[in-house]
C-alpha cells in the first residue's frame, strides 16, 4: 500500500523546484528516510508524546475537573440506549457451548432489533447534538482552547525529543532530533497559517449521515425485520454445524492413541523445583481461554512490548497477541507471550476454571478484572462464537468482493478459504487456527505470525500478480504491480480490520460495563481498581473513526493530492502540510480525548493517566496514518461530479477569455444516455489505477488540473479504442518510449515530426504521445460545461507508444500520417497503441474529456491539427461510461470489463 501511495514519479518530480515549502518538505523527507532505514527507531519518539500527553491531560482535567462528574453522568445517559439492551442480552444463565451461544444470539436478535434505530438520520442528529452540548456547555470545552493547549503540548514534545534518554541508540537519537526539527519548522511556518475549522455540529452531522448513506448500514436499518429473520436462520444453521463438528472432534480425541506411560511422562516433566516457577510446556496446553486471551492480548505488551517493535505491532495486521491457556490437568493458567518468556498467571493443587484465578476472582491487586452484570461464562462463549462469526464474515466478504469485481480471484479465493478454515477450526478445535498449528508443532505463540500475518501477506503479494504487465520493461512492470498490490492490500486490510473492529467493539463494551469499584484512582498509594477500563481502545477507536472522518471531509478538495508541486510549475501547497502535521494529530488527539471520556462514562470510573496516553499516542498515530486515511477516504470525492477548482495552485482565480470566474459543474450525467464506452475491446477487463480527483496527479496541484480523468493500466502496445464517435483533430507520437522528455528531447521530437508532417505543422512541442477526437454530435444532457451549459467535447487519449498512432493507422486502415487528422472514427475503432511517455508511472492510458469550440470553429485544415494548443479548454469535464456498473463513474483500484465492440471499419 505504501508503495502504491508514495513511490510515484510525480512525488519525486515535485520535490524539484519547490518554493515556500522547501524546508518543511526537507524535514519530512529526512524523517521518512531515517524511519525507512530503521523502522524500530520510531519507538524512540513515543515516550516524548506520552510525557507531553500526560501534562496536557493534567491541564485539561484541572480545568474541567469540577464539571467532570456531571458530564460523565450525561454521557452515560447518552449511551444507555446501546449499553442497556446489551447488558440485558448478556444477563441470565450463560449458554453451555458455542453452539448454544450461537442459538442464544439468534434468539436475542429480536430484542436487539431496536438498536438499528440508532442509525436513523434523526437519531444520529439528536445524539450528536446532545454530545455537543455536553462537551461545550457542561464541560466547557472549545476548539480554540483545545487547540491552544495542543500547541503547547507539541512544544513540550519538541523539548522532550531533544533530551535524549540514557543509552539511546544512534538511530533513535537521529529520529528524535529529526522529529524535533520538523516540529520546530511547523511552529514557525505552519501553525500561523492553519485555519479555524468549521465544527458546527449540524454540518458535521450532515457529513456523517452522507458517509453512512454510502455504506450498507441505512439499507440494513430499513430492512432490519427482514434481515433479522435471515440472520437468525444462518446463526441456527451455524449452531448445528458447530455442534456436529464438536461431536466429531470429541470422537477423534476419544480414538486417539493412549497417553504416554508414567515413565515417559516423568522423563519429559521438569523437576519439581522448576515446575513451581516455570511455565508448562506447549504440549501441556489443554484449553484456550477465549475471553482471557482477548483481555491479555496486549495487556502486558503495551506499545513497545519490551522489544522495540511497538510501531510494528500496532500497524501490522495479524501481529500475534499474548494468549491464555489452561493446562490439560486444569491446574495451571499460563500466559503465552509473543516476544518474551511465558508467564504463569495462576497455579493450584486442584483443577480450576480460568475465571477462578485471582486475576478474575481474587482480591484487588495491580492486575485484575471484574465481572459485574455480565458473567465470565457468557463472555467466554460470546468471545468464541463471535470469533467464529468474524472469520466466517471476513471470508464471505472476500467471496462477495470476488463476485462483484473483475479479475479479483487470485487474492480473494485463498483469503476466503483461509478465513473460513480458521473459523471452522475455532469452532471444532476450540482455538484460532494459527494457535492450534503452533501448539501442535511445539512452537511459541510468537510464531503464530507465520499464519496470522505472514501467510495473508504472502497471499496478497502472490495474488497481486494477477493482471501484471508482461509486455513492458521489468521496471515499468514492477511499478504497475505496485498499484495492483496497493488495491489488494487495501481491500484485505479493510476486510480484516472492519470485522475484527466490530468484534472488539462489543467485547470492549461488555468489559467496560463490567467495571466495578471506585469511580477513580486513589489520591495516594497503589491503584487497585479492576483493569477493565484499560480495554477501551475499540470504543475510543470508533469515536476516532467518526471524528476523523468528519475532519478529513472538512479538508477542501483544492488541497487534495500530493504535497509537492508539479515539476516546479505550481507553487507549494501551503495548506497540505498543516492538514497532515497539525490538523491530523489535533483531530486524533481530540477524538481520543472524547472517546476516553465516553469510555469513562460506560465504565463509571475515570483514569487520568489513560487520558494522557490516548492524547499523546493519538497525536503521533494521527500524523503517521494521515496520508493513507486521506487517500482511502477522499480519492474520487468530487461532490458527485460538481467540483471544479476556482483558483490555481498559486492562488490566482481561474477565468475564461472574457474574465469570467469558474463555477461548479451540474454533476455527473445520467448513465442511461451516455454515448461513452470503455477504451478497450469488449470482454476485456482493465484496472483503473487512478480515477477522478486522484491523489497522484488528477488534482488541482497539477499544472493542468485533470480532475475528471482516468488511468487505465494498458500493457505496452495494447490497442486503445475510441470511446465515442467523432473526428480526429490532432495527434503526436514522436516522443521516445518510456521517457518524460526534457526541453531538448521535446524539441528533437518536434523536429522529427516536421520531416513527416511538414515544417511548422504545429505551434508547440508536446511532452507526450496522444490523439484527440472531437465529438461532432453534441448531446445536451451529457456534454455539459460549468453550470450545465451544453458544449462541444473533445476526448484526449495520452501516454501512447512511440509511433503508436501512425503504425496502427497504417496497419489497420491503410492511412499514412498525413491522412490521420480529419478522419472520422466511430466508437470501437482502434486509435493508438498504449505506452508510457510523458509524466507516467507505468504503461497506461490517460483519458479525459475537455470542452472546446463547435466544429465550425476549426482554425486549420489537415494535415495540420484542426485546433492548435490552447484552443481547447484548460479543465476537464465529468462524464460516465454506459458499460460500467452502477452509475457509470469509475473508481480507483478496480477492474472494469468493457462492452465496446472493436471495429476496424471507419465511418464514411
From TrEMBL:
EC number(s) given by UniProt: 3.4.-.-
Enzyme class: hydrolase
Biased composition (Low complexity): 252-277
Positions of region (Disordered): 252-279
UniProt entry keywords in alphabetical sequence: Hydrolase
GO molecular function: hydrolase activity
Protein name: M23 family metallopeptidase
Residue intervals passing through the bilayer: none
Entries under CDD domains matching the protein: M23_peptidase
Amino acid at each position: 500500500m505504501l508503495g502504491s501511495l508514495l513511490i510515484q514519479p510525480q512525488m519525486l518530480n515535485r520535490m524539484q523546484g519547490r518554493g515556500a515549502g522547501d524546508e518543511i518538505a526537507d524535514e519530512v523527507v529526512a524523517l521518512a528516510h531515517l524511519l525507512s532505514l530503521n523502522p524500530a527507531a520510531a519507538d524512540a519518539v513515543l515516550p516524548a508524546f506520552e510525557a507531553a500527553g500526560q501534562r496536557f491531560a493534567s491541564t485539561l482535567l484541572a480545568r474541567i475537573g469540577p464539571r467532570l462528574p456531571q458530564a460523565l453522568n450525561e454521557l452515560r445517559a447518552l449511551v444507555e440506549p446501546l449499553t442497556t439492551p446489551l447488558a440485558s442480552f448478556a444477563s441470565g444463565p450463560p449458554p453451555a457451548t458455542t453452539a448454544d451461544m450461537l442459538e442464544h444470539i439468534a434468539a436475542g436478535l429480536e430484542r436487539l432489533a431496536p438498536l438499528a434505530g440508532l442509525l436513523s438520520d434523526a437519531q444520529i442528529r439528536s445524539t450528536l447534538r446532545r454530545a455537543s452540548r455536553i462537551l461545550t456547555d457542561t464541560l466547557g470545552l472549545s476548539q480554540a482552547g483545545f487547540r491552544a493547549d495542543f500547541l503547547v503540548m507539541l512544544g513540550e514534545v519538541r523539548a522532550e525529543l531533544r533530551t535524549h534518554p540514557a543509552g539511546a541508540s544512534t538511530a533513535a537519537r537521529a529520529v528524535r532530533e529529526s522529529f524535533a526539527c520538523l516540529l520546530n519548522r511547523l511552529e514557525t511556518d505552519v501553525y500561523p497559517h492553519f485555519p479555524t475549522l468549521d465544527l458546527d455540529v449540524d454540518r458535521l452531522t450532515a457529513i456523517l449521515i452522507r458517509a453512512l448513506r454510502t455504506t450498507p448500514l441505512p439499507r440494513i436499518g430499513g430492512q432490519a425485520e427482514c434481515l433479522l429473520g435471515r440472520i437468525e436462520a444462518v446463526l441456527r444453521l451455524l449452531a448445528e454445524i458447530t455442534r456436529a463438528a464438536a461431536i466429531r472432534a470429541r470422537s477423534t480425541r476419544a480414538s486417539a492413541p493412549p497417553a504416554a506411560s508414567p515413565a515417559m511422562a516423568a522423563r519429559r516433566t521438569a523437576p519439581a523445583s522448576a515446575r513451581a516457577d516455570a511455565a508448562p510446556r506447549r504440549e501441556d496446553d489443554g484449553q484456550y481461554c477465549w475471553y482471557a486471551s482477548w483481555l491479555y492480548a496486549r495487556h502486558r505488551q503495551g506499545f513497545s512490548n519490551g522489544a522495540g517493535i511497538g510501531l510494528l505491532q500496532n500497524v501490522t495486521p495479524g501481529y500475534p497477541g499474548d494468549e491464555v491457556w489452561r493446562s490439560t490437568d486444569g491446574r495451571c493458567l499460563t500466559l503465552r507471550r509473543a516476544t518474551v518468556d511465558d508467564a504463569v498467571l495462576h497455579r493450584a493443587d486442584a483443577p480450576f476454571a480460568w475465571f477462578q484465578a485471582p486475576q478474575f476472582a481474587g482480591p484487588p491487586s495491580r492486575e485484575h478484572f471484574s465481572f459485574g452484570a455480565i458473567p465470565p461464562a457468557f463472555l467466554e462463549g460470546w468471545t468464541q462464537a463471535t470469533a467464529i462469526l468474524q472469520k466466517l464474515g471476513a471470508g464471505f466478504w472476500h467471496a462477495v468482493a470476488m463476485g462483484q469485481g473483475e479479475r479479483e480471484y487470485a487474492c480473494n479465493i485463498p483469503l476466503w478459504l483461509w478465513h473460513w478454515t480458521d473459523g471452522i477450526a475455532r469452532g471444532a478445535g476450540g482455538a484460532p487456527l494459527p494457535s492450534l498449528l503452533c501448539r501442535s508443532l511445539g512452537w511459541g505463540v510468537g510464531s503464530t505470525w507465520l499464519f496470522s500475518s505472514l501467510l495473508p501477506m504472502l497471499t496478497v503479494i502472490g495474488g497481486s500478480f494477477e493482471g501484471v504487465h508482461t509486455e513492458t520493461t521489468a521496471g515499468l512492470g514492477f511499478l504497475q504491480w505496485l498499484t495492483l498490490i496497493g488495491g489488494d492490500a487495501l481491500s484485505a486490510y479493510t476486510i480484516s480490520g472492519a470485522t475484527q473492529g466490530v468484534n472488539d467493539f462489543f467485547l470492549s463494551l461488555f468489559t467496560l460495563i463490567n467495571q466495578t469499584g471506585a469511580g477513580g484512582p486513589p489520591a495516594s498509594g497503589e491503584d487497585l481498581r479492576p483493569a477493565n477500563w484499560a480495554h477501551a481502545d475499540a470504543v475510543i477507536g470508533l469515536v476516532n473513526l467518526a471524528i476523523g472522518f468528519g475532519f478529513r471531509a472538512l479538508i477542501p478538495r483544492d488541497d487534495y493530492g500530493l504535497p509537492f508541486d508539479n515539476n516546479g510549475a505550481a507553487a507549494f501547497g501551503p495548506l497540505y502540510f498543516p492538514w497532515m502535521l497539525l490538523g491530523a494529530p489535533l483531530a486524533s488527539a481530540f477524538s481520543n480525548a472524547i472517546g476516553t471520556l465516553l469510555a469513562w462514562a460506560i465504565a463509571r470510573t475515570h483514569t487520568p493517566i489513560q487520558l494522557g496516553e490516548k492524547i499523546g499516542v493519538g497525536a503521533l498515530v494521527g500524523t503517521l496514518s494521515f496520508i493513507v486515511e486521506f487517500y482511502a477516504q477522499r480519492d474520487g470525492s468530487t461532490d458527485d461530479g460538481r467540483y471544479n477548482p476556482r483558483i490555481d495552485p498559486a492562488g490566482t482565480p481561474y477565468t475564461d477569455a472574457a474574465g469570467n470566474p469558474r463555477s461548479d459543474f451540474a454533476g455527473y450525467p445520467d448513465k442511461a444516455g451516455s454515448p461513452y464506452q470503455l477504451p478497450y475491446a469488449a470482454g476485456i477487463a482493465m484496472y483503473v489505477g487512478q480515477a477522478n480527483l486522484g491523489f497522484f496527479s488528477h488534482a488541482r496541484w497539477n499544472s493542468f488540473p485533470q480532475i475528471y480523468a482516468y488511468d487505465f493500466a494498458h500493457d505496452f502496445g495494447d490497442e486503445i479504442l475510441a470511446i465515442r464517435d467523432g473526428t480526429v483533430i490532432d495527434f503526436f507520437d514522436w516522443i521516445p518510449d518510456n521517457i518524460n522528455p526534457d526541453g531538448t528531447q521535446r524539441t528533437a521530437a518536434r523536429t522529427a515530426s516536421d520531416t513527416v508532417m511538414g515544417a511548422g505543422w504545429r505551434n508547440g512541442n508536446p511532452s507526450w504521445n496522444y490523439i484527440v477526437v472531437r465529438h461532432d454530435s453534441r448531446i445536451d444532457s451529457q456534454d455539459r460545461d460549468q453550470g450545465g451549459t451544453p458544449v462541444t467535447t473533445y476526448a484526449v487519449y495520452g501516454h501512447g507508444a512511440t509511433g503508436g498512432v501512425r503504425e496502427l493507422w497504417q496497419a489497420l486502415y491503410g492511412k499514412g500520417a498525413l491522412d490521420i487528422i480529419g478522419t472520422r472514427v466511430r466508437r470501437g475503432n482502434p486509435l493508438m497503441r498504449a505506452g508510457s511517455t510523458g509524466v507516467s508511472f507505468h504503461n497506461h492510458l490517460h483519458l479525459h474529456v475537455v470542452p472546446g469550440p463547435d466544429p465550425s470553429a476549426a482554425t486549420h485544415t489537415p494535415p495540420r491539427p484542426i485546433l492548435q494548443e490552447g484552443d481547447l479548454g484548460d479543465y476537464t469535464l465529468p462524464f460516465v461510461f454506459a458499460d460500467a456498473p452502477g452509475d457509470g463513474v469509475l473508481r480507483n483500484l478496480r477492474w472494469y470489463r468493457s462492452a465496446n465492440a472493436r471495429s476496424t471499419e471507419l465511418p464514411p
